[in-house]
Each structure stands twice: as C-alpha cells, then as structure tokens.
Design goal:
By secondary structure, the protein is α/β, with parallel strands linked by helices. The protein has a 7-stranded parallel β-sheet, with helices on both faces. It contains 8 helices and 7 strands, in the order βαβαβαβαβαβαααβ. It is about 45% helix and about 15% strand. The chain has helices at about 15-30, 40-50, 65-75, 105-130, 155-175, 195-200, 200-210, 220-230; strands at about 10, 30-35, 55-60, 85, 135-140, 180-185, 240-245. The mean pLDDT is about 95. It has a single domain (about 10-245), classed as NAD(P)-binding Rossmann-like Domain (Rossmann fold, 3-Layer(aba) Sandwich), CATH 3.40.50.720.
Length: about 250
C-alpha cells in the first residue's frame, strides 16, 4: 500500500530475524531502509537483497561512538531517519540464569547490549529527529519484561523491563517535539536468537503451550504492527505497548 513512501527507516539488528523482516516490509511499503547491524557482511547481503532503497551500516549498539558515527554518516548522506526501530539484542542461553546463579559478567553483557544499546540508539535517534521535526521510534520489548515468563533469564528479563520503562520516559519527554516512542512486545518468535528452544521439541512445546493461539510467532507477524507505528495512521500513539504475542501476556 506504500504507507511509508517518503520515509527513511533505520532498523538495528536488521541482518536477520525480526529486524530483517521489518526492513523488508518497510521497503515494500515505500520506505528507504538502513540495515544497521554489527555483522557487516550479513547487513550488506540483506541490503543488496532488498535493492536500491536499502543500504547497510555497521553499528555496534553497545558502543556510543559506533552509534554516533552511524547517525552522523546517514545525516551527511541525506539518509537521516524518520523512523528508528531499536531491535538489536541478545539472549544468552546457557549463561543467563535465576538471580542467585547469575554470573555478573553475563548480567553486564546483557544489559550493555540490550538496555544500554537501546538507550544509545534512542539517544541519537532523538537528536536526529529533533533536527528534522520529529519521527517514530519503535522498541522491541518482550513478555519477560511484563510478567514472570522469563524467570530463568534474569538479565534478559531485566533488560527488557528497562526497555519498556525507557520507552515511556522518552515518549513523555519528547511528545511536544513530534517524536513518538512505542514498544512492540513479541511473544516467542522463532528466529536464530532462540534456536536453543526451537530445536528442543520439549522446550518448544512447553512455551507454545503458554500461548493461547497455540503457535510460535514469526518475524512477519511483528512487521505489520511496526509498519502501523512507523506510519502516519499511528500519529496519536506514543508511550504505548503493543503486544503481538498470541495472547501470552493475557495469562
């Protein structure tokens, strides 16, 4: 429907998974898309597959200089984003654990990437949008930041709860500047991030059993809601959370 014609969107973690699905959908809706990822070859491959409306940028969201440089380069090239999807993150299966068993370095690494990295992405997105008259920032949350779903993943759950709080705070601070900030909450979505679960039939069945729709989410399930939040139809939506979880957070 070309609902994003004329917009430029930056998506972090866009070389694979949810980020890639969102970038593809944004391009199909008429946007120029920046594939931002720390995996340079994968980002370039994704951008080439999408076509001339896409470009790749190497970004390590946990490093402020990397984020700052990426936004500066885009602004200099006329690609300053109207839409930013802060999607990149990690979940350290086999290392993240209940609090009493959690190694401090696993905590720090998870918080550095998921929460601090999202903060840095938002920080420079806001700066860019203040200079251009506003825009839409979309954060990828998680049911683990809403309820007890992630009891065995202390660091990941805490990082996602922090992201939800960050979204509300930034939304309130910059609403008068035409900058909207919303969170999308996917349920268990099968991507390369969760192969530890998807490749274990017992674990997969257990988590799907907690989803009322009785299936896993797909990256394309998430993309449609992000198109809505990126576009003008959601002009009055800010500081909100949009659950795309098959009903998981209703339980």
């Amino acid at each position: 429907m070309n609902t994003l014609t004329g917009k430029t969107a930056l998506v972090t973690g866009a070389a694979t998974g949810i980020g890639l699905a969102v970038a593809r959908r944004f391009a199909a809706e008429g946007a120029r898309v920046v594939i931002a990822d720390r995996d340079t070859p994968a980002a370039q491959q994704a951008a080439e597959a999408i076509g001339d409306v896409a470009r790749a940028v190497t970004v390590d969201i946990a490093v402020e200089e990397s984020v700052s440089t990426a936004f500066s380069v885009l602004a200099a090239d006329g690609w300053s984003p109207d839409v930013v999807v802060a999607n990149a993150g990690v979940q350290m299966f086999g290392a993240d654990a209940p609090a009493a068993d959690l190694d401090l370095e696993v905590w720090r690494r998870t918080i550095d990437i998921n929460l601090t990295g999202t903060f840095l992405t938002v920080k420079y997105a806001v700066r860019a949008m203040l200079a251009t008259g506003g825009g839409s920032i979309i954060l990828t949350g998680s049911p683990t930041g809403v309820n007890g779903e992630g009891k065995d993943f202390t660091a990941y759950s805490a990082s996602k709860a922090g992201i939800h709080g960050l979204a509300r705070t930034v939304a309130a601070a910059y609403a008068e500047n035409g900058i909207r900030v919303n969170t999308v909450i996917p349920a268990y979505t099968e991507t390369g991030l969760v192969t530890t679960i998807s490749e274990d039939p017992q674990s997969r069945a257990a988590i799907i059993g907690r989803i009322p729709m009785r299936r896993a989410g797909t990256p394309d399930d998430i993309a449609g809601v992000m198109v809505f939040l990126a576009g003008d139809d959601s002009a009055f939506a800010t500081g909100a959370s949009f659950a795309v979880d098959g009903g998981m957070t209703t339980l």
